[in-house]
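User: Hi! I'm working on a homework problem where we have to compare a predicted structure to a textbook description. Could you give me the structure for the chain below?
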Amino acid sequence: MPKTLIEPFRIKSVEPIRMTTRAERERCLEEARLNVFKLRAEDVLIDWLTDSGTGAMSSRQWGAIMEGDESYAGARSFYRLEKVIQDLTGMRHFVPTHQGRAAEKVLFTAVCKKGDLVPSNCHFDTTRANLEYLGVEAVDRVIAEGLQPALVHPFKGNIDLARVEALLRKEGHRIPFGMLTVTNNTGGGQPVAMANIRAYAALLKKHGKPFIMDVCRFAENAMFIKMREPGYENTPIRDIAREMFSYADGATMSAKKDGMVNIGGFIVLRSDEWLDAVRNDLIMMEGFPTYGGMAGRDLEALAVGLEEGIDEDYLRYRLRTAEYLGERLEANGVGFVKPTGGHAVYIDARSVLPDMPIAHYPAWALCNALYLEGGIRGVEVGSVMFGRRLDDGTETYHAMELVRLAFPRRMYTQSHFDYAAEVIAEVKQKAGQIRGVKIARQPRFLRHFTSEFDWV
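Assistant: Happy to help. Predicted structure tokens:
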């Protein structure tokens, strides 16, 4: 076969992109108060803000939508999806939610209390915010290699077992459960090894703590295990995923990622210990347990999407796409988190803007520059997202200043990636002209979504 890896699908429907000028983008960004979240999507050429719910559904999924049962209670579509999820995860109890942050909110509200502590490799933004809103301390314990963008390591999403064990010994009375995110979004979409998952599960069991996984991108993590972990090279993705789930006591998922749908999420639990509390909170926050905030048509689309998301031809293409852009950036001297992750490429803003003070938020500044130069919308994963303003007015800063370019599934073609590589190279050449920002207005939680900025 030829070496060129083609998209394992044909395009059946298209959506036009409005081409904008530099002057138009300057006006749009000013009106958005220098926050790309506030841009109108129609003013964006390539929208890589997130891979959450932004992908293209298949013809099979669109067909399944017509089968949706919109009954309030006991809908046929619920039971169809329940069977798919039980078969994939091996867990008895399936609780639907409208998206991942809702699954987190429902589970944490049912299980956590003020003063608790939850360890993970890295908590992403909504996970951390949902915990902190309840007065729970969210503690990151990713391995040291996971905080070094230029370092190549096959499983930079691994949790540091020694540091977690020390935490369990010292603060075990505060820990209701341990978490793990696969793949590790905060740290560059990096995978977690099966050996690490297995060892973490054993460690938590030794200390009598349940193990909860955030499995938004479980299929991508399974593919990395197949490609990189000895002993799994001939194992089907479904079997790898089943083994991953077998070590956990429960999981939350934003199905808008590897579920291949535009909306949806769920909680799965192995035992019924927390089930009543979870379902009671679900009814108050989301809806009846057999729809949980999702329409019947979305339940049907997800049942198909979970099957399509573990297809190896698709996953091989998916991971190769990120790798391809990484190769283009490497050729142009642009630093990024290595090796590339599954759903995104994370540019190391400090490599592009080495002289910009951290107080001017270099990753945020680089996000703005990518939009101004080429209409590309990414997202900052740095000190705006994970820093905070303390009561005395001082700021805390994140360990890394990254710009995540997250790729919607089955949407963009190679020419879009070639265009993006050219824009990023151009931005690097003009680094001396890129302006930093200062925060003019911010909320208490998840400030990156709605904060307003001024140029420094």
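For your comparison, note the following. The CA atoms of residues 261 and 413 lie 19 Å apart. The radius of gyration is 21 Å. Good luck with the assignment!
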